[in-house]
Design goal:
There is one protein chain. The protein has 357 residues and is α/β, with parallel strands linked by helices. 40% of the residues lie in helices and 17% in strands. It has 11 helices and 12 strands. The strands form 2 sheets. Strands 2-1-3-12-11-4-5-10-8-9 form a 10-stranded mixed beta sheet, sandwiched between helices. It is globular. The mean pLDDT is 95.
Length: 357
């Protein structure tokens, strides 16, 4: 199996290297033949090619078994017309990676930001190719405009097609978990756009009578996530709401650095950490690679399920279990969660745990 590795910006090269190291250990244990091709992306690509992501590289990525994508410093890129394309958006739109799957769970051996006695174990299924994002809702051009220096407008796009397919992925996932889906919306204000999304989710729900469906206004959802997170299993949301809620849930459960994330189409999967590029600690061996390692584990499990490959499924489970085993020991945690271990040493400890079973 061949994977394209795109380290990108900030701490991206460090955490991606850590995740690949752990994935290689899992590959050796479960007899997987893994090969990795490394390519420049982000600022490295901008310096070399004049653009943060080349169309040729994006198209070539389709041919790989999976994509391992590092963090990007998008806010620091030059304007798109000067080569500063949003890397994540380019992959999501260009390869139709519409399902951004973001789990969040508390761990009994790690402190969380929940109220005492509360626990969280949920997954946010975020639609990633449309919604309130100016680079994702126009066939040509940009979804924001300024008719005058003192007026700015933004266009939002919601389609039945994209709403139905993310809803279907949410119900499929719920069937493997606690069989509950919560649709997140603001249909009381966005009658047409959120109304269309909510109706699409309800239509899909008819095909899954075993799954309980409820819905919540996004503002109410934030309150319930803090007050009673146990009520949630799988949340399905449009792009903007899912982006915000996933950061909230990850931080509540302990840290943005502790949750994995994948972007998937019907045929291709990309592992990408939930958090940003943290340029202030880049190159200092201080980064926590947990999110990136868990993202690659999720990708392995996704591939295993798609292909009926037990080796990949076992690799994904082993990587996740090894991360928890290492995190359970205060002596083998990174500085952001109270430890002293560096990025490389943490990855080595997780790889050793994977190899040892």
């Amino acid at each position: 199996m061949q994977f394209i590795v795109l380290p990108c910006d900030g701490i991206g090269p460090e955490i991606v290297d850590a995740a690949v190291h752990v994935f290689e250990a899992a590959g050796r244990r479960f007899g997987l033949r893994l090969q990795f091709d490394v390519e420049d992306l982000g600022f490295a690509s901008l310096k070399k090619y004049g653009v943060t992501i080349r169309d040729e590289l994006l198209e070539r990525s389709r041919a790989y078994d999976g994509i391992i994508l590092g963090t990007q410093s998008h806010a620091d890129y030059p304007p798109p017309e000067q080569g500063g394309r949003n890397v994540s958006a380019a992959y999501r739109i260009g390869l139709d990676l519409y399902a951004n799957v973001r789990p969040a769970r508390t761990r009994p051996f790690l402190p969380s930001n929940m109220r005492e006695g509360r626990a969280m174990d949920l997954v946010i299924m975020r639609e990633a190719t449309e919604g309130f994002y100016p680079d994702r809702n126009m066939a040509r051009g940009w979804g924001e405009m300024m008719p005058s220096p003192d007026m700015a407008l933004s266009v939002r796009k919601i389609t039945r097609h994209c709403s139905e397919r993310i809803a279907r992925r949410a119900f499929e996932l719920a069937m493997t978990r606690r069989r509950k889906v919560t649709a997140i919306h603001k249909a009381n204000s966005f009658h047409m756009t959120d109304g269309l999304f909510l109706q699409a989710v309800r239509d899909v729900a008819r095909d899954y009578p075993q799954v309980q469906l409820d819905d919540l206004l996004v503002d109410a959802a934030t309150a319930h996530l803090v007050k009673e997170p146990e009520r949630f299993d799988v949340l399905v949301a449009t792009n903007f709401y899912g982006d915000i809620l996933s950061d909230l849930c990850s931080e509540l459960s302990g840290s943005l650095g502790l949750a994995g994330s994948i972007m998937a189409s019907d045929t291709l999967c990309c592992a990408q950490a939930q958090h940003g590029s943290a340029p202030t600690i880049a190159g200092q061996d201080k980064a926590n690679p947990t999110s990136m390692i868990l993202s690659v584990a999720m990708m392995a499990s996704w591939l295993g399920d798609k292909r009926g490959d037990d080796g990949l499924r076992q690799a994904g489970r082993a990587m996740e279990a090894a991360v928890d085993a290492v995190l359970a020991d205060p002596a083998t945690r990174t500085a952001d969660i109270g430890g002293t271990m560096g990025c490389k040493a943490f990855a080595a400890a997780v790889a050793q745990a994977v190899a040892g079973g």
